[in-house]
Structure formats: C-alpha cells, structure tokens
C-alpha cells in the first residue's frame, strides 16, 4: 500500500475520533478540526509512514506534537504582541509587517528547535541584539571559545535548513 493510500485509510477510519480527542483537549471545535488536518498533513508529508498495529496510539503521538507546536506558536505570538504593545505607536509596525515578523519568528523557532538552550540564547543574542562574542560570553557566563562553538552549531543548523 502506498503511503498516501495508508494515510487515506487512517483518515477515513480515525479522523472523527482524532478530532473528538483534540476537541476535548482544546475545548474548541474549529481548532480541533484544524489540528486534526495538520496531523494528517504531517503524515502525508512524512518520508515514511510506518506499518501500524496501534493506529490511534500513533495518531495521538503525532497529534500531541502538533498540539505542542500549536501551544508554542501561541506563546510566541503572545510574547510578540506584548512586545508590540510596549512600543510607542509611532514606531509600531503595520499589520502586514506584523504578520511577516510573526511568520519569521515561528520559522526561526522551528529552525532552532532541538538545539540546547545555551546555543539558542547565544545565537539570538548575536543575531537579534548584535552582541559581540565577549558580550555574549559575559552574559551567559561562558568563554569566547564556547560562544564561537555555540554560534557555529546554530549557523550549521541554519545552513542545512536552506
């Protein structure tokens, strides 16, 4: 059975169950429907779909990851909107600029996901705050050589993501 046929069978057999499970988690039928679709899209775009003996357990695992990303995006969006609220109105970005910045933040968050926290912090301090290696080292309490290693690790992640 081809992967798309396998996902089609999973969809037909378990979509309504998964949507109900997500609805109980979220309390919102529209968000549950969206995240159920995202779960199946993730399966369709996966390199391989394993042969399943417990399809609901598998779907639950994938849906939990989708749900985690959903909550993470909400947290990121809230933090961004709070930062915008703190800006003077004269320098606040337009709605279009806000959308572009938020998309960029989400993409950057996904790109850096999985890197150790000190590596992410060093990268963000260098890229967003423009700090020097010495300033980053002082702020994080690490040596300049460690800062360089952290930034190289983050740069490699960015390079291979392209």
UniProtKB/TrEMBL annotation:
Biological source species: Pseudomonas weihenstephanensis
Keywords: Sigma factor, Transcription, Transcription regulation
Homology family: Belongs to the sigma-70 factor family. ECF subfamily.
GO biological process: DNA-templated transcription initiation
GO molecular function: DNA binding; sigma factor activity
Domain RNA polymerase sigma factor 70 region 4 type, residue spans: 106-158
The organism's taxonomic lineage, starting at the top: Bacteria, Pseudomonadati, Pseudomonadota, Gammaproteobacteria, Pseudomonadales
Protein's name in the database: RNA polymerase sigma factor
Domain RNA polymerase sigma-70 region positions: 10-75
């Amino acid at each position: 059975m081809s992967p798309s046929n396998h996902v089609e069978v999973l969809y037909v057999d378990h979509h309504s169950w998964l949507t109900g499970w997500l609805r109980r988690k979220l309390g919102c039928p529209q968000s549950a429907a969206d995240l159920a679709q995202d779960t199946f899209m993730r399966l369709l775009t996966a390199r391989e779909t394993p042969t399943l003996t417990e399809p609901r357990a598998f779907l639950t695992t994938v849906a939990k990851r989708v749900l985690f990303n959903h909550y993470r995006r909400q947290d990121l969006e809230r933090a961004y909107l709070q930062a915008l609220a703190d800006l003077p109105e004269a320098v606040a970005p337009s709605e279009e600029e806000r959308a572009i910045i938020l998309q960029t933040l989400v993409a950057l968050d996904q790109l850096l996901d999985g890197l150790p926290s000190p590596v992410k912090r060093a990268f963000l301090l260098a890229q967003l705050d423009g700090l020097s290696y010495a300033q980053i080292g002082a702020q994080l309490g690490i040596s300049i050589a460690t800062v360089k290693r952290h930034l190289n690790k983050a740069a490699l992640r960015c390079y291979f993501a392209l």
